[in-house]
Amino acid sequence: MNEGVDIQEISEKIKEESAFVEQLRLEVSKVLIGQHKMFDRLLMGLLANGHILLEGLPGLAKTLAIKTLASAINADYARIQFTPDLLPSDIIGTQIYNLQKNAFATMKGPVFANFVLADEINRAPAKVQSALLEAMQERQVTIGDTTFNLPDPFLVLATQNPIDQEGTYPLPEAQTDRFMLKTVITYPNIEDERSVMRQQISGEKPEVKPVVTLDQIKSARTQLHKIYMDEKIEKYILDIISATRSPEHYRMPDFAQFISFGASPRGSINLALAARVNAFIRGRAFVIPEDVREVALDVLRHRIGLTYEAEAEEITTDRLIKEIINEVEVP
To answer: May I ask the CATH class of domain 227-327?
Structure first.
């Protein structure tokens, strides 16, 4: 009975704390038409204090999405176009000698923002990628002999073009694992695209106003830890992760030849965290199996390695994950 009362109290608190989500969604939808999944994933990364790797063709509103979200939260926004000649100092900053003061002055780079768009991250060499990924992981930057903390909240949205791979530097598996989510963006439906086209040719530019504060985002983060996750849900998450490593133990012996390595412990942590945020966004104080299933693809698709046999059979990580979700027993 006491546990039931606690859940009820938490439910009321979660509904109150998550009320801003719909308000934020309405404000962002003035400019970002359709692409509801992309908005949810951006919000998920923001609330979970994670980062997002976004894969999609040009022109699918990736830049517009994060810029609009930053405007609706009144947060600092920076865009970095990754190119082969980019240097780490172009991202984190550098020290410049001041002749008048006869001393070095620190010039901070664009990474010092709440929202950072790393556009086409695979266009820059490994040294530049590592500089950004270190900032993502440590949430601090060292320039010269001084260490600076990055703003809070701090969200990196890195984009990749899935088609044009010529002249690129693909992210190694160990680095992609640092991203909480890898979201694949597809074309909008006809009606959404019609609305986009009409809005663009009308010449009208809707103004996005701040409707949420950074303090509200920070407050919402503290509520995530109160969302109830049953032991059966925890076991369900661990079973899914284990099935990516040893599918033969989950009635999928044929899949073992297609997987070179499975999800790391970061996978189980992020799957549990993403499921909690998914429940929060929907105003629930407890996690259900559907929360786990809904975010599994985005959490796991960049954490599973495929063998040459899988490539020969044209089997993708998405297909493997869907098969695993269908086979693992749901609580």
So the answer is: mainly alpha
